[in-house]
DNA sequence: GTGTCGGTTCGGCGTGCGCCGAACCGACGA
DNA sequence: TCGTCGGTTCGGCGCACGCCGAACCGACAC
């Protein structure tokens, strides 16, 4: 079978700090250019090219050439899942976070962030909990969309019903959050919620990171739609 | 945050073919001695020691010293999950399986195998499907044990009710099978089912591998308890 | 056209690490 | 008590690979 070699080859893609940093950056779900990744990780452009070649060849990333730019992004939700799974396995090392700046970043990430294409962090968990409390999700085993939840998505949030047809991707999925150690909504529904919140400007990216901030309008909207209270001020 | 470095360090543990082979062998859920792993992977004992030190230090394996033996096993179900997740991401390479012997092994693994502590492969999927069909599991979102299912486990299968109390480990979990591309039952219930089937000698390991074979008694029992028909003869 | 800029190719450097064999230690059995 | 055996430590070898700079290519702007 030679499975060991295959597994090792896959793991080797992420076993380099620079490549790992690339993948973590790409967890925001957007497409980055080579330059951006190079600056982000602090390596030369030539080095970046080599790494990207390996990641694309290994199937973790897809690329799109456009003019003189090379855009790369995660190959899909399954790749993002794999990464979050791995991150969840990193044992909480001692003495981290170290610097003030990194502590601030960690706090922002913990408060709310995107996990490829859905919401995670305290914000993601809070929304999931509220949807459960309002009967929009069913907690039978993991997370299932109720019929009330389906109409809520289309009417209250304005998701196109055609976008909720079951396809290759499951309608709901429970994603375990590594900061909260709690499940939150992922899958197609999670992605649509995240998209609509962005489109309504109820959440905004903090700088260019994965961390997101709830806008005042968003706070009102989530209060109105889900009964959520004060997410930004606690801690 | 230096998360990239942490992720890389974790991935590096599996980025070596020998260590990967160790972990795959340990996916059978049993404890192996250093000697056994050395022979299995075809490396010197000294090399094995170094690899095991790294894997234990990295938290993927736990060890138990007993006399002059060093037993190692996977750190827990979460580690097994991570490995199966990674295996599921290995793209189906061309031209595999290559040899007759490896083809036979693959077929046996596809037919039925243990996935750390529960059943997978065609057998695992068939049992899960039968449990769903008989109302022992609920398909709402993923897999949930119904009340009928709970009594079935304790009466028909003889699982101690005290063992079904929710603890740190979820009662049910859906594990995606990489041969069948289908969900099957994992979690506490899955582990108990696998254990009871072994204890009743309804399944038996093939040699020392993870592959399992349904015994004639097992075939009768699964027919009686779940209405399952002829799993061994097809293909 | 010319300059700038993103990306690639190539050669070369340093080192991290996977491997082994030899020596050693400690547990067990005769 | 002495051999055997599982496991460990240590020194050393060699390869793989991550990195860079220099040269080059193609796209875009002026």
Automatic annotation (TrEMBL), chains A, B:
SMART domains: HTH_ARSR. PROSITE patterns: HTH_ARSR_2. InterPro entries: ArsR-like_HTH (IPR011991), HTH_ArsR_DNA-bd_dom (IPR001845), HTH_Metal-responsive_Reg (IPR052543), WH-like_DNA-bd_sf (IPR036388), WH_DNA-bd_sf (IPR036390). Residues 1-94 form the HTH arsR-type domain. CDD domains: HTH_ARSR (cd00090). It comes from the Bacteria. It holds the Pfam family HTH_20. This is Winged helix-turn-helix transcriptional regulator. It comes from Kibdelosporangium persicum.
